[in-house]
Every structure is written in structure tokens, then in C-alpha cells.
Amino acid sequence: DTEVTQTPKHLVMGMTNKKSLKCEQHMGHRAMYWYKQKAKKPPELMFVYSYEKLSINESVPSRFSPECPNSSLLNLHLHALQPEDSALYLCASSRRDPSYNEQFFGPGTRLTVL
Amino acid sequence: GQQVMQIPQYQHVQEGEDFTTYCNSSTTLSNIQWYKQRPGGHPVFLIQLVKSGEVKKQKRLTFQFGEAKKNSSLHITATQTTDVGTYFCAGQAGNQFYFGTGTSLTVIP
Fold first, then answer.
1. Do B24 and B101 contact (CB within 8 A), yes or no?
2. Other beta carbons less than 10 A from residue B55's beta carbon
């Protein structure tokens, strides 16, 4: 299995809602990443997990809360988001960190905040 | 701010023409990767370069890492309509990892 899956594909939420994005991989990768990508812009790194521990948090607002329950799963909990948080949220994994090796990306969750 | 810049931002070519995108970093990179993102899709890994001056080829694609490890290029020979998409370089410096600004390629049949 060489796939990273993400659910849901689309999400619309209000500013007072709480929701979660999910990411899963079964390639045995020990590094997992969350990225945010706005239209016509490059992906921006948000969080890096290495061996299920948060190793890098790129100064992301606390309304985004990552969680890595085990080596195959990565969640992103969302609370009190702003309309400017609307974007494509991409999950990726790679064999190991910190060398950011070849990253396999999931299809992303397209988030709209109303 | 953004530390890895790419030029050009957009490129339209006739099918069969060559295409090159250039990637420049303000800091020395330990490695550089290239990704392709089709419209509506997600980034797909193409290649990683690690050594100064390294050149790698994948069929019609040629990748180069500069001697100072601050720049890189991707050259596509005889473009095809399947080459359409945005090409991103992505560089690592220490624990930092940045995607370049991207070059959007349109191929006109």
C-alpha cells in the first residue's frame, strides 16, 4: 500500500464549530506532516511528527491542534477557525525525519470556513 | 518569509517545445526535492538531489543541483500535454523545509 488517505475530502464549517481532519498511511513511514495550501500558492508546512512525537510546529495558531494517536494515523483538530483558514489541507508521510525524504502526499481536505 | 523562489511563475509552451524552471534559495540547502502538482491534485514527488553539482535524468526530465547548493533547475525536453501542472522545488536547510513558489506550466497542443 503506497497511499496516504485523507478524510473528509471536503469540509464546510462555521467559525464556532469543532471538526477534525484525518490522515492515514500504511507504508510504515515514521514521519508525518500537515501542510496548508492556498490557491495558486505552495504548500506551507504546519506540523511535523517524528516517531509519533511532535518535532516541529511552524508557529501555527492554537486553533489548529495536531494529534498522532499511532504511527499510521494523524489528526488535525480544528476549533474557532477564521474564514482566512479556508484552504486545502494536505497530509504527507516519509520514511524518516529529519531528512524530509521523499514525501507521499494525500489528496487533501478542502476546507471552507464560513 | 519565503526563502525559496522559482522563476518563471507561469510558462506557456507549444507542445514539443522545451521548458525550464529555476529554483533559488537564500540559504545553502542540504538537499532539494522536486514535486509536480496537477490542477486539482496533490504534490507528487519526482526526485531528490543531495550532492553539489548533481545531475539526474528521468526520461525527458533533467534535474540539476547547483555547485553552491543554493539553486536547482528542472528541464523538460519536448513537452507533452501530460506535463501540464505546477512544478515545485522544495529545499531543506537544517530543520527547516520550504516549498518554492512554483512554476505553472501550460502546454498548448
1. no
2. 11
A98 vs B contacts (CB less than 8 Å): 95
Pairing of strands A104-105, B71-76: unpaired
The identity of residue B44, as a single letter, is V
pLDDT digits (tens, 9 = 90+) for A66-93: 999 998 999 999 999 999 999 999 999 9
Task: List, in order, residues 6 or more apart from B47 with CB less than 8 Å away.
Answer: B33, B34, B56, B58, B61, B63
In a mutagenesis test of the B interface, which of A44, A93, A99, A110 is the best target, namely the one with the most B β-carbons within 10 Å? Answer: A99
The shortest C-alpha distance from A6 to chain B (Å) reads 12
Q: DSSP letters along B54-101, please?
A: -EEEETTEEEEE-TTSSEEEEEESS--GGG-EEEEEEEEETTEEEE--
Partner A contacted by B39 (CB < 8 A): no
Alpha-carbon distance of A34 to A87, in angstroms, equals 12
Which element (helix H / strand E) includes A70?
Answer: strand A64-70
B1-53 pLDDT tens trace: 558 999 999 999 999 999 999 999 999 999 999 999 999 999 999 999 999 99
For B81, other C-beta atoms within 10 Å of its C-beta total: 10
Contacts of A57 (CB under 8 A, 6+ apart): A46, A47, A66
B97 at the A interface (CB within 8 A)? Answer: yes
Rounded distance, CA B19 to CA A5, Å?
Answer: 32
